[in-house]
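Example complex used in Figure S2.
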Amino acid sequence: MPTSSPNPYLPFGENKHADWYGKDIISVKQFNRKDLEYIFGVAHEMRGMVERVGTFDLLKGKILANLFYEPSTRTSSSFTAAMERLGGSVIPINEVKYSSVTKGESLSDTIRTLECYADVIVLRHPETGSAAIAAKAAKKPIINAGDGIGEHPTQALLDTFTIMEELGRSSTGTRSGLENLTVTMLGDLKYGRTVHSLARLLSLFDNIKLNYVSPDILKMPKEVMDEVGAGNISQAEYSSLEKVLPETDVLYVTRVQKERFEDPADYEKVKGAYVIEPGMMKTAKQNMIVMHPLPRVTEISMDFDDDPRAAYFRQMEYGLYVRMALLAMVLGKA
Amino acid sequence: MPTSSPNPYLPFGENKHADWYGKDIISVKQFNRKDLEYIFGVAHEMRGMVERVGTFDLLKGKILANLFYEPSTRTSSSFTAAMERLGGSVIPINEVKYSSVTKGESLSDTIRTLECYADVIVLRHPETGSAAIAAKAAKKPIINAGDGIGEHPTQALLDTFTIMEELGRSSTGTRSGLENLTVTMLGDLKYGRTVHSLARLLSLFDNIKLNYVSPDILKMPKEVMDEVGAGNISQAEYSSLEKVLPETDVLYVTRVQKERFEDPADYEKVKGAYVIEPGMMKTAKQNMIVMHPLPRVTEISMDFDDDPRAAYFRQMEYGLYVRMALLAMVLGKA
Amino acid sequence: MPTSSPNPYLPFGENKHADWYGKDIISVKQFNRKDLEYIFGVAHEMRGMVERVGTFDLLKGKILANLFYEPSTRTSSSFTAAMERLGGSVIPINEVKYSSVTKGESLSDTIRTLECYADVIVLRHPETGSAAIAAKAAKKPIINAGDGIGEHPTQALLDTFTIMEELGRSSTGTRSGLENLTVTMLGDLKYGRTVHSLARLLSLFDNIKLNYVSPDILKMPKEVMDEVGAGNISQAEYSSLEKVLPETDVLYVTRVQKERFEDPADYEKVKGAYVIEPGMMKTAKQNMIVMHPLPRVTEISMDFDDDPRAAYFRQMEYGLYVRMALLAMVLGKA
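Predicted assembly (1002 residues):
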């Protein structure tokens, strides 16, 4: 990860708005470009603070209820660490399935109970739309940490923040935004919630070129492409990485799962084309980055992990800063 | 919830006694009226502090072992929040069933181990009497968070505290106690641990009228009525709410479970009579309150939730203050 | 437990070395005698601090990821308490089996993710060698909290520290080491990971006599005896406790499990010989101690628990101090 520098985003003092206090974070669709710049500005400050002091007391005395209806070690740990690095406390709630929910209590009642104890609630739930239901019931802010095949907005934000921190640039040479980048998305683009959300967020910036590389049966859905295409962005589809790799600034890898194919032979035919290995990366730029939402199975060889372009673990760390930023913002401290 | 005011309970400075330091909280039977007044006085102060500053460092450096042999999101979260709002730390222990207990370790050994690490232990256990066993083994204070069909004293305390905070009054016009109230208990009064404990605590106050409204097969047990009747209290049984609703100050609702009935047809006949809906509440007083231990299923319509008389979520919040008070007291800080 | 006194270990100022910062704690084999003396010196200081102030801010702002792939209430709680008593925070991770690991993520990836959030990782894993794999992947320090039938170094350290705190002595009369002690290990010496590791650590000290008392089929393995015998130590095997009990300074009891015997009749014949009861302890010294790694089932009668020689719960408490010492050391604060 490049060394942290003083905040390079242009005058944040002016952008600073108190509008985030008490707000819910439910969907990437709720953000415009100015919102993203604000979030990333705060996240960048969080990065600097963590690098300098590790932990600080911005949210001392605040309590986060970390409500996970399905397990997600990575996301849950990230939010816990985010709250603790801000000096706050966490109520970990991981066994909800065996608890009041099985007795028939509605999600709304659980939320209304927990907000009696906590100042902010992070919710992971297997059902699409549950975060919106929770937000409707709650007076305290709700942060959606994934609701089924619905949204996982903090993942999309950390993906975009990773690109900005690693490759952020603008036409005037300052690092105030994302411009003139080629982002190649690889693998399962049909079912991948993360690539849909990332494409939506990238469409808010200027002169981004999006390459979609996938097997025929796993192409980026037309409705996402239509939505993304409304922005100042170009999109193109490919079935092979080879041609677009040399121009790629960001290669976003997702897993192609065998189960998606009716005929296993079809899977065997294509799978090799979607595995990243050191050899094939010789044609890629030296300052590009490879991203992955993790967990990774075989789609990126562990032999590539020590390449400086392998950004997927740094990506996890950027997630910490984005979540710190969101917690501080909805609690009125940033 | 009414706005918090300076402590209205009469001179607490005089009542203040250090006797609580190191004590166990096992059963409602251990409290006399003076004890309750003391606990509620401290809980009221906790409420004021939380409203003013959210969290404070009264128990900084103290550690709570939150030992749950069966899941209970609500109770577990409430104790965790209580400890954290007092500046203390929590060791969450939720998977005991898969752990040393399955290897045959006795509850006493687990408790003696945990008190090496923690300053106070909150215990939830499926077996009646387990809290007393734990208290016998431990040198550190034990707080019973429910032991099977035995006791759940903090629930009973928070129920009584809710009534005092919302409707507390005395014959002299000050808010120093519970007097001259009509409390109607509705639903399953036979198996409901909470209504038995609440009735016992209310019998310590003066001029309380208790109405028991239940199906015939789910009446308040005679032994509880005998015990309660020893106090300055009147009790009466009904099979319908209609008659007693207009005079009711506190309506305490519990769920009537289908499984309690041998003949499902009997259940179908009575169930409607034990469901609270906005329409039927027109005959009730404007300043009465409806309580429920939660989780609620269908016995209170969600349409009633926005009525100011719906006190069941405020009840959860009062639970936080009562548990803060008990933790501070047994650790010698209140 | 004897009252804490000022650090009796000889000039610790001189031994103090910064070499521990960032180190992993994987195996007892990594320690020499000087290491042990340093660890126990710090642990003794931790004991004094806990007795005086309970909790202090040595690791304020530091975060521990407590990663348990299999449940172990005792060990997990002990590390959590150790971190909290040092003013640090904990990310509890107990449900890994249902999470990313089941999706196929490698242990290395999980570790590399968690070190983005935490400053130190405690790992409990069912597979031998997993702690070494984790340490190889991680930049942050890893502490092995048990990897299958492999190692559980903090258990061995706390066992040795218990003996030193309770019976430490040296030929010059100071309490700077373990010398001239008779340690009798009882029960299942074949499969007991703890007795193997303890024997290894004791072999680093001078003039220790080790008695092994076990059923024939559960004798101390020859390879452990060979390794231990390389030190300045004497070893002898017995099938009955009676003869060696009077000379014993430390009786380390482990459970003889019925399942180890092919013929249940053989188990019935021997089991009585490996149960500690008050009556048989009459021939033992007054200042000896009885230890057990816990959980205990029937191999030590609960009737013996109140005997001052019963050291097994104190042993748990010494474990807290050893873990506090290790956390402080690898984080560069001791």
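The beta strands of chain C are 63-68, 89-93, 120-125, 142-147, 182-186, 208-213, 233-238, 250-253, 289-291. Chain C touches chain A at residues 60-63, 65, 89, 91-96, 98-100, 103-106, 108-110, 112-114, 116-119 (CB under 8 Å).
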